[in-house]
Specification:
The chain contains ten helices and ten strands. By secondary structure, the chain is α/β, with parallel strands linked by helices. Helix 6 packs across helix 7 and helix 7 runs parallel beside helix 8. The protein starts with 6 loop residues before the first strand and ends in an 11-residue tail after the last helix. The structure holds adenosine-5'-triphosphate and magnesium ion. Adenosine-5'-triphosphate binds next to helix 1.
Length: 255
């Protein structure tokens, strides 16, 4: 184990219905890395993110966050202080105001009832307002969340992550449901916020263009295994076309 790594995986295997959908003999992720997970539909991206976020615990093998096995040693509260999760559908409560959804970022620390009934101290409200300012949504602070557009809701989800102040952000197709212009804006904002806070980012993406433009490391999965693990500048058209081809091409394993 190496405490320099934020995540360390060894001999990881996830099987569904008798089929191995993810097999990672070894993978280490260092603090501050911005990793894009790419690969065809069904390649195993969400499964990997689910394991790293503690939502899938039926795998075999070892997964450590710093020096602690994620499935046994970490209390949920401690874990959610370290790990922020952005899902495709944001997990916002439409009936609640924007600010209450942002404050729910503290949920792991403070409990559900406190956030549901807005029993927040003014200091926390200040933090939420500052997070909403950073994502450009201050004018919507007290709006009902369901009245916001998809892109705006995604920014609420970012503000919620900001006040959680996690060490690592795991994002499963964070911009998939947005139009291309908005998708790039949100991704740019996410990367900017991650850089400002020196956080680690692991995001699955369908856009190779964005992966190359905004991330420091690209991990390509194919049929549940790492097909390549490279710096963006090393990701050539040739490698991409064999990644997305249907033939079982040879595995490229450089890093
Ligand atoms: N709960 C489950 N039960 C059975 N099979 C599953 C389950 N979750 C995922 N799978 C299978 O595991 C494989 C990997 O799925 P995963 O969702 O990780 O792919 P993905 O790379 O995220 O794909 P996409 O780009 O479509 O989101 C797929 O074949 C999928 O059908
Ligand atoms: Mg997926």
């Amino acid at each position: 184990m190496n405490s320099e790594n934020i995540f360390k995986i060894t001999n990881l295997s996830q099987v569904y219905e008798g089929k191995e959908v993810l097999s990672l003999p070894e993978l280490s992720i260092k603090p501050g890395e911005k990793i894009a997970l790419i690969g065809s539909s069904g390649a195993g991206k969400s499964t990997l993110l689910g394991i790293l976020s503690g939502t899938i615990d039926t795998y075999r093998g070892e997964v450590y966050i710093h020096d602690l096995p994620i499935n046994t040693c970490i209390s949920k509260k401690k874990f959610h202080r370290k790990v922020g999760i952005i899902r495709q559908h944001f997990d916002l409560v439409g009936e609640l105001s924007v600010i209450n959804n942002v404050l729910a970022g503290r949920l792991g620390e403070w409990g559900f009832f406190k956030s549901l009934f807005s029993l927040f101290v003014p200091q926390e409200k200040k933090k939420a307002v500052s997070a909403l300012t950073r994502v450009g949504l201050i004018h919507k602070t007290y709006r009902k969340t369901s009245t916001l557009s998809g892109g705006e809701q995604q920014r609420v989800a970012l503000a919620r992550i900001l006040i959680q102040n996690p060490e690592v952000i795991l994002a499963d197709e964070p911009v998939a449901s947005l139009d291309p212009q908005r998708a790039e804006d949100i991704l740019k904002l996410l990367v900017k916020l991650v850089d400002e806070e020196n956080e680690t980012l692991i995001a699955s993406l369908h856009s190779v263009e964005y992966a190359k433009k905004y991330f420091t490391r690209i991990i390509a999965l194919k049929d549940g295994v790492i097909f390549f693990d490279l710096e963006p500048k090393e990701v050539t058209e040739e490698k991409l076309s064999s990644l997305y081809s249907f033939k079982g091409d040879e595995i490229i394993h450089e890093r």
